[in-house]
Structure formats: C-alpha cells, structure tokens
Design goal:
The protein is α/β, with parallel strands linked by helices. 38% of the residues lie in helices and 19% in strands. Helix 2 crosses helix 6 and helix 5 crosses helix 6. It is globular and about 50 Å long. The protein starts with a helix and ends with a helix.
C-alpha cells in the first residue's frame, strides 16, 4: 500500500521565483533501495547529486519511500535502486562473466512523455566502476560507488526535469559514461544542459 501511494504521486509543475539565496526549485527525491547498500554510499550519492544539480538552482530533499508515503509533495521524483549496491571482493567475477548487460538506469516514458520515475541498476554501476578501480580505491569502494550513483542519478534527474530523453556531448548528461567517468574527476552539467534546466524552471 505504501509503495502504491508513493508511485502514484505526480510531479506538479509549480512556478518558482529565484530570489537571493533561494533555490529555484526544492525537489523531493524519493529513493527506494531494493537491495543491500551502505549508509556511506547513500550519503555520498546524495552529496554528489546535489553538487552536480545545484548550479541550476535546485535543492534536493531526500526521502525514503516510507517517509514519502506519509506526506504530500508538490515537486517530486521517485527513484527505485535495484540490485546489490556493493563492490565484490572477487577480482575475477567480472572477468569470467562480464558485467551485467543493459543501461545503468532509465526513466519511464509513457505515450512519449517522460515521467518522474526512474530505475537504477546498482549491480551494473558497480560492475562498471570496478573495472576502473585499482590499488587504494578498494579501501574507499563505498565512497566511489556512492559517487557513481550520484552521477547516474543526476543524469536521470536531468531527463525528468527537462521532460526529454535527449543527451549532450559532454558532462553528466552524455549518452554513455565509462567507469572512469563515474568515479574520476568532477562531472558536472554541460553549459547546454544547465541552460535547458534553468529555462524549464523559469517557465514553470
């Protein structure tokens, strides 16, 4: 019943005025983990997503599915994170089997309209970044996985807020991101995507 309430919510496009020190949009992000994960990864994911999206004037408010079912929100996106959010200690598992096929994540589209609902395949994200890790990276695997999830989540939030499945040639909104790009140097919004987000918020 609680999940039905959460997933039945609709993203309402409410007008926002950007005042000094005031976000253009306070966006509630409901995250529903369906597999094992660490608090450290979750915290890093939240921080990384906010870091990427903040230049558009967006402040993210994080809620679990249980918390969201008790309240109503005007601006909301729902993200289901499936699979085990962990870096396996076995260095040979992906050499033998290869990473799980498919995209890191996707946003639902109904009748050509992008919906405020996304799914992330955590095992695919973990497989991708494991191929880019070495040495001391394994001592901070939770942080790196959270960073990667934050970048994947920011990518999907861009789709949901711009109501578009389009991609850019650079930045977090690229069509494909490598393991190195998911955990390496800062990955931000491209100037074009930043401008599109700001225009969307202005016309709400």
């Amino acid at each position: 019943m609680k999940n039905a309430l959460v997933y039945g919510m609709v993203l309402l496009c409410c007008s926002r005025l950007t005042l000094a020190g005031t976000p253009a949009l306070n966006l509630t992000v409901v995250v529903d983990f369906k597999g094992s994960h660490s608090i450290r990864s979750e915290t890093e994911m939240q921080q990384e997503t906010q870091k990427i999206i903040q230049d558009a004037g967006i402040h993210l408010i994080w809620r679990t599915a249980d918390q969201a079912s008790r309240n109503e929100y005007s601006d909301i996106v729902v993200v289901k994170i499936k699979g085990a959010c962990m870096i396996t200690p076995d260095p040979n598992i992906y050499d033998e089997l290869g990473p799980p096929p498919g995209p890191y994540a996707f946003t639902w589209v109904t009748n050509g309209e992008v919906q405020p609902f996304a799914e992330v395949a955590c095992d695919r994200v973990a497989a991708a970044i494991r191929s880019a890790m070495w040495g001391g990276d394994y001592g901070k695997s939770d942080v790196l996985l959270g960073r990667a999830l934050g970048r994947v989540l920011a990518h999907e939030i861009v789709h949901m807020l711009t109501h578009s499945g389009g991609h850019e040639r650079e930045g977090v909104a690229k069509a494909a991101l490598s393991g190195n790009q998911l955990i390496g140097k800062p990955l931000l919004l491209s100037p074009a995507e930043l401008n599109r987000l700001k225009q969307e918020l202005t016309h709400r």
